[in-house]
Queue: 2 jobs
Job 1
Amino acid sequence: MQITANNPERKSWLTVDKDSDFPIQNIPFGVFLTKEFITTIGTRIGNYAIDLGALHQLGYFKGIPLTEDIFMQDTLNDFISDGRKTWRLVRNRIADIFDLNNTELQNNTKDKEVVIFNMEDVEMLLPISIGDYTDFFSSKEHATNTGTMFRDPENALLPNWLHVPVGYHGRSSSIVVSGTEIYRPKGQTIAPNATQPTFGPSKLVDFELEMAFITTDANHLGEPISIDQAEEYIFGMVLFNDWSARDIQKWEYVPLGPFLGKNFASTISPWIVTMDALEPFRVPSPKQEPTPLPYLQQKGNNSYDIHLQAAIKPENKKETIVSNSNFKYMYWTMVQQLAHHTVNGCNVLSGDMMGSGTISGPTPDSYGSMLELSWRGTKPVQLVEGGERKFINDNDEVIMRAFCKNENIRIGFGECVGKILPSK
Ligand code: CA
């Protein structure tokens, strides 16, 4: 089935700024609360939130096999379970409804009143109920930087890294939507040269510039997903700030890996941008040497050219952009991650989320965490209005942005924002 929604010539009768992340070619999916306290599934064009529950009730999705209440829910999980064919049909139909040449809704003032809201009048909610969250470690630059800092510059990558998309199981209960404030975590840490740990607020709160993909029900327990099939089961992507307390992490992680240094909060952007919308921005992933085992060998271009940005905004001050990275730097691709995740028969469900791992680029200004940007605190990052940061201070806001751009269109993710409050 053709993705007619992606036609770059298409224009909407809704006003869209030239630099908007949300032209009619994007059509992401999210969940929002209206002023009347109604929770609904929706999409966004320009600065308008569109109530898909209302559109469906009014009959605009006629002919598409959808249950009556599919959009009148507080998560996207059931819609995601409907599968790629349905996502595509719905996206194509939304593009048609809001196309400049279509007057059906455009000329229906009564319907427009219940379907279209200003973004300022809605509150974005977490778009999915995340059953399981897995975090990978798939940027070679990030793995090399951390290996250089904490182990041995000569052997920065551990022997498994070039063979296995390394990952761990995270915690989903503390994943929050953009805009949610985060309390500085407390925990056990150990001072350099000390023999006993102490307890208190983390001194080294950091961000991790990541993206995450959301899956649909993919496989039964015991049945792997082949790499050639993997794409079928990826619904879309969000921006992802995987907050980390480096001092807690450092003390606790041996031998079982990340725990309380990671699970106090992770922030995602509210709109899930579909893989269909990202289709025009496919690019090759980095060449893999040595060649991975056969179950990880991929065909075609499986990465995406997505510009990534992280900024720090101290209270009442201007923001400083501290990193410009790109999703295309990722060594292991999403299809490799999903094939690897299920190769042992592990089942993946609708609404599961897989983090990419911190995405660092090749240059120091493209590193995806303060740990790397300030090189463990040895090179503080200068702020535009004075002051510097080694890590994140109380009342600092971290703002992440992501977008794709070619000569025709810009498809973006909006912002993923979180503020660190003093410990409770
Ligand atoms: Ca992470």
Job 2
Amino acid sequence: MHRYARALVAGKVVEGFLEEDAFVAGDIRHSLDQVRLVAPCRPTKIIGVGRNYAEHAAEFGTAPPPEPLLFFKPPSAVTDPDADVVYPRQTRRVDFEGELAVVIGVRCKAVRADEAEEVIAGYTICNDLTARDLQRSDGQWARAKGFDGFAPLGPCIVAGLDPRRLRLQTFVNGRKRQDASVADLTYSVPQLVEYISAAFTLEPGDVISTGTPAGVGPLQPQDVVEVVIDPIGILRNRIVAPAS
Ligand code: MG
């Protein structure tokens, strides 16, 4: 299985593959402590899906929506594996949301669910960071979901997975906070690709973040969030206070 990744090597972004302890680009093996991984794709848009696990919807006292509930995160929200994420001054509550993310491989529109696999490059992990207080007070979700750094992506893209067989776990400072089977998605990956591509042309590198399971909660500066989906790996980021 190939784990496609990108890394900064001598100041340039290089494509390659992630192995246990190395980033391999062509014939060159770089030890992982010598290179910095960057987000494995550059989306023109990130489409988020709200309340797509029944148990998470229940946390907010709601049922799953009658159709997929969509929102956007801007490309400027994307950040890298292991990057620090600044806790914005405008919010008093930032929640982690560990999610399986679908990466689109080809330009497409109006894809049927039974053809969805043909347009999917692979799967990565997204932490759909959310300013929960602003999500409520703003009415629209653009600011709450869209701050710089609020879409960590990575550490790699794995093709050919069956999302129904994946398990998602989120840890904060090493303590387990989310643990779910991706099979429990209310709207499956093929259904999401059909519904979303009926509305928007999807471009290579675009990301569909499929929603978070139960267990979301607030973060504080210095917290380390790890979202784990085997065999994609661990998406790890530290939250930091804004510079004073
Ligand atoms: Mg989410």
